[in-house]
Structures are given as C-alpha cells and as structure tokens.
Amino acid sequence: MEKKEKVRDDGIALDFEVGDEVVEIININSFSLPCPLLVFSPTTQGSYPVLLFFHGFCLQPDCYKSLLLHISSHQYIVIAPKFSPMTSRCEVKKARKIAEWLSTNKLDSVLPEKVLPDLLKVAVSGHSRGGKTAFALALAYGSSSKDGSSTSEKATREKQPPLKFSALLGIDPVAKRSSCLCSPNILQYIPYSFNHSVPVAVIGTGLSNQRAFGVCPPGAPNGVNHAEFFNESKPPCYYFRAKDYGHVDMLDGTNGMTTLMGIMMKSGKKESKDSLRRTIGGLFVAFLKAYLEGQADDLINIVESPDIRAPIKLDPVISIEE
Length: 322
Known about the structure:
Layout: E1 23-28, E2 37-42, E3 46-54, H1 65-72, E4 77-81, H2 91-103, E5 115-127, H3 129-138, E6 167-171, E7 200-205, H4 226-232, E8 237-242, H5 256-264, H6 273-293, H7 297-304, H8 306-309, E9 314-320
Parallel strand pairs: 3-4, 3-5, 5-6, 6-7, 7-8
Antiparallel strand pairs: 1-2, 2-4, 8-9
C-alpha cells in the first residue's frame, strides 16, 4: 500500500505544525461535574475524536494552552479538567466522574453548533502526576473511596472504566515522590504488568530525573518516572525521550507557578521550548491518528526516522508491537 506521507520541504512531518482547524476554547462549570473543564473544540461541522488531558501537580490547563491548541487544531476535541491542588489526593476519583459525565453525552450541548464528540474514539492522557492519573483511569482505578482519597496501598477497581479508551498517552508521568505519597500506587516494577488493553505512548524528557542547581529535587525521579511507566506497559507501546529537555519545559509561561517550576526544575534551553511543545503535539497527533483513526503512516515514519521527521532530538525512540 502506498504511504500518504505529509512532510515539510525539510522533511519534518506536518503533524508537528499547527493544523488548519479553527479552535474554540470553552469553559464549562456544572454542578454535575466534580471540577470545571477547559475544552478545546474544532468549529467546523462534524464529529470528532475526544482526548481527555489531566494537568500536573499545582498546575492548570491554561499552562498547556499552546500544546492543547496544537492537538485540537488537527481536529480533536480536548477536554482538560481544572483540578484544585487542595483536592489532589482525589484526582483519580474525580477523573472517573468526569469520564462518567462524558459518557452521558452532556458534552454535546456546550460544543459549537453542529460539532459532536465521537465517543467511540476516546483517548486519555496527562502530564506529570496527571500522566499517572491517566494511567490509573485507564487501569480502572477510582471506583470507590479507596482510590485517591485513601492512603491504602491497594486501591479497589471496577472491571471496566466508565468509557472505553482507545489510546493512552503520558507526558513525563510520575507515580509519586518521596514528599508526596499519592495513592493509588499503580507501579508493580514488573515488565508488562499493567492490566490494560489499549495502545500506549510515553513521552519522557531527558533532564527530568536531574536536580536543578544540584539541590532541588528532580521533577520525575528515577524509578517512578516515564521509563518505569513504559516498562510496565503492554504492547503495542511507544517510547519517545526528548533528551535535551526538562520536566516542565512544555508549559506556557503564563503564571508565577510555571515560572517557579521552571527555576526549581532542571530545564533545557529557553528559546527552544516551543520546539518541544510542537514535538509533543505532533507525537500526540500521529499517535491518535494511528489508533483512533487507523492512519498509521505518520507514526511509522516518525518511529523509523525521528532525526528527519521530528523538530528536536528524540533519543531513544522505541516501539514494541503486539
């Protein structure tokens, strides 16, 4: 079969560029939701795949505006909950309630006219601790009071999550830190031990396990970071490491918290952070196209030739097929 490859003149895949779709940003507050939502929606009439995105600790969806706009501009509806730092131990339970809300078709009424979510094509994702939340939700945690609001070592799970997820993506996922022991503890330290049936993409950063100034704790310590999440994922699974970047380098510099984190955590070159956002956005788009829409050419080309197709150095790039 002939490949329908879309690249720039310099060989970089067009997934790494902002798409053509006009995106509307919508704030949703409802008594039926456990927290507000920030929604990025295409505006052209049609039915679109859905991506749930969970932010990192002490952050908000606004910190990821450039990244989420990039993804949505390629014709995806992105739903980003606004968790409160004061209720961080309940995030998995809240995430499950949001998925339940989404499954009842309540999103339809708040989207632009004649725009509908395709709930047969749903992916779940997140950054940092939000990445762990995404994995926990896909693994069906969050079904009782023992999930994120208890210190119990073993969280209870139902057999199925409230929505059928077709893809799972994590950006520098972190399971816990020594100073923040958050349940559920999902890591087993056994290869391929995650009990899931969805394709997985893990995007890590090469500097996230290092201390800033030799003193500040790393954002994603060894043993609980992206490498272990990938190690425990079942095929098909993909691993991309942005070797020259840090744990929060993909954030927009929108507030004091992102500025503080940028100082406290090991970081790459400030002037190249937009390239990291483009790279993560493009990897999301290529992966979603492959596993939500059956268009795998871009993902295959990126995996086979990352030095040519991606805007930044990705090393290593690993794919494990079924």
